Amino acid sequence: QVQLVESGGGLVQAGGSLRLSCAASGSIFSINAMNWYRQAPGKQRELVAAITSGGNTNYADSVKGRFTISRDNANNTMYLQMNSLKPEDTAVYYCNYDLGTWYGSKVSYWGQGTQVTVSS
Question: Which of 33-37, 80-84, 99-103, 105-109 has the lowest mean pLDDT?
């Protein structure tokens, strides 16, 4: 089993910055992609940023130029640097790892979520 633990959320004023971390523990054979999602009250969970095993990144249009996703391969840790935060960025942020297994299948794990609140 793999466990993901997010940290770094909190309350920040508009224009401020936060850095989220997602640390993985357990046995990991391979990582296909690491993703950050968020879910605001009354809204569906949405993909915020993704990074592949090759380092390719993808961002939601709403965060392009403000958020940066990165990873530490040695420690299976992922980060989300969030700058120029806006009140509409307020949500619970979840990390998600898409993993490969030794027998060729895929499995996905989720963190418990961390609250990000941006005040105006």
Answer: 99-103
Q: What is the pLDDT of residues 45-76, one digit of tens each?
A: 999 999 998 899 999 999 999 999 999 988 99
Cα–Cα distance measured from residue 89 to residue 107, given in angstroms and rounded to the nearest whole number: 28
Rounded distance, CA 71 to CA 32, Å?
A: 12
Q: In this structure, are residues 6 and 79 in contact, taking their beta carbons and an 8 Å threshold?
A: no
DSSP 42-80: TS--EEEEEEETT--EEE-TTTTTTEEEEEEGGGTEEEE
Question: Is 40 strand, coil or helix?
Answer: coil
